[in-house]
Write a structure and sequence with these properties.
The protein is mostly helical. Helix content is 73%, strand content 2%. The protein is built from 18 helices and 2 strands. Strands 1-2 form a two-stranded antiparallel sheet. The protein is globular and about 65 Å long.
């Protein structure tokens, strides 16, 4: 416990001393450091991680921090783009109408079907398993079609994060509300469709991040309206999350707090520790970059399989493996705690090549996070959207291997969108 406190305190001091844009790093280091420390107290009965496992986390964050500082001080000024008002305007208009006319209607259609299914066809608790195909292998929501489910996951999943990250960015940087409204709707619709809590969690965290990233409002009346709206929205999101929890069979408030506040935020540390000690775990089957880039790799697998090869994407392999129940501790009544699907981003990084891969990805993530942290000063909306997406990728990597899901492709789409619009503006001007 003392080692954890000392290391993260040193890293925070280094960032404070040598960084010009430290706020993103503060958020990541405090988030991971606090939850890492919370795991030591084992408030819900989780096994405490070993020193060997702790060194893996230490190694990553040391390289991540040093890479961030080095990039900011010696590379950033040579790499970072200047803000382009035309690219910003074209991007906002394109994403707004694209979301309004295409993505939102598709999500409304599936959401209406979801509400019908868990209201009249099956119990909400059963719907949760059905929507992930755990009962029959296919999902009733997607008309029991694997192709429809994959099309939705491959296309709509990343695009809704593109809209959400951009909506947050344009609201914080340019005070534009429209795209944020559509992005929020998409996240809520997806949460209803999947009958999950993560969507509400994204919005709750975003409310907190808004106050971190924005300057104080000039007028008291404006501050009052912002605070009042944020508090009301915050309470609505908490209520929605608790309502879903209650409908899924959990009603004891103490159990809810222990499970969804403590266990869900710290169990990935224990699962990673267990799998590191398990010589038969797929964690030790090195994939040399394919796991950490699994969110991109999965797009190429169907194309490769067309030619007769039988490859399975890392997203499916790791996701399927982590869906098994892991014994992660015992509660106060000595009942076993069995949880799944919480392997964290460290599961994929370590699977790519052990400590070397963890170090390399620490350096790479530190580099890109430093590059796009520059948007805190330049106020480039697209770059700030990428920065916000990277922040989410790392923060929510504590719950699951986020690099296997839609967030990573969303960042690539944002980057490509900016390059296309830059070329377009040069062509027409």
């Amino acid at each position: 416990m003392i080692q954890t406190l000392i290391l993260f305190a040193i890293l925070i001091f280094i960032v404070a001393r040598y960084s010009k844009n430290p706020i993103g790093m503060y958020i990541i280091l405090i988030w991971w450091g606090a939850l890492n420390l919370l795991n030591y107290f084992s408030l819900s009965g989780l096994f405490i991680i070993s020193s060997d496992t702790q060194y893996v986390y230490f190694l990553f964050f040391v390289f991540f921090t040093l890479s961030f500082i080095f990039t900011e001080n010696f590379i950033n000024s040579r790499v970072y783009d200047n803000f382009n008002i035309n690219v910003s305007l074209y991007s906002y208009n394109f994403l707004f109408y694209f979301a309004l006319l295409l993505i939102v209607p598709i999500q409304i259609m599936f959401t209406v079907r979801a509400i019908y299914l868990f209201s009249f066809i099956m119990e909400p608790s059963m719907y949760r398993s059905d929507v992930f195909g755990l009962i029959t292998g296919t999902s009733s929501l997607f008309f029991n079609s694997v192709h429809v489910a994959k099309a939705h996951a491959f296309i709509i999943g990343p695009l809704q994060f593109v809209v959400f990250f951009s909506g947050i960015s344009y609201f914080i940087v340019r005070k534009k509300v429209g795209l944020l409204f559509l992005g929020t709707i998409l996240i809520v619709l997806d949460a209803i469709m999947m009958f999950g809590r993560f969507g509400y969690h994204y919005l709750i965290i975003s409310i907190l991040l808004y106050f971190i990233f924005t300057n104080k409002n000039k007028y008291k009346e404006e501050k009052f309206r912002v605070y009042l709206f944020s508090i009301v929205l915050f309470l609505i999101l908490i209520f929605a999350s608790l309502k879903i929890t209650n409908n899924r069979g959990d009603s004891n408030i103490i159990k809810i707090l222990k499970t969804y506040i403590v266990t869900y935020h710290t169990e990935s540390f224990t699962i990673f520790d267990i799998e590191l000690k398990n010589p038969n775990s797929i964690l030790h089957e090195y994939t040399y970059g394919l796991s950490t880039l699994g969110g991109i790799e999965r797009y190429f697998i169907p194309l490769i399989n067309i030619f007769g090869y039988r490859f399975i994407s890392q997203a499916d392999q790791v996701g399927g493996y982590l869906h098994q129940n892991f014994l992660i501790g015992y509660d106060e009544y000595n009942n076993p705690l069995l949880f799944n699907a919480y392997g964290s981003i460290f599961f994929t990084m370590y699977r790519d090549g052990g400590l070397i891969a963890v170090s390399v990805f620490g350096i790479l993530l530190g580099f890109f996070f430093s590059i796009y942290s520059g948007s805190l000063k330049t106020k480039d909306p697209i770059d700030f959207a990428i920065f916000y997406g990277l922040l989410f990728l790392i923060l929510y990597g504590i719950f699951q291997p986020t690099v296997l899901g839609p967030m990573l492709p969303a960042l690539f789409i944002l980057y490509i969108l900016k390059q296309v619009l830059k070329a377009y503006t040069k062509l027409i001007h």
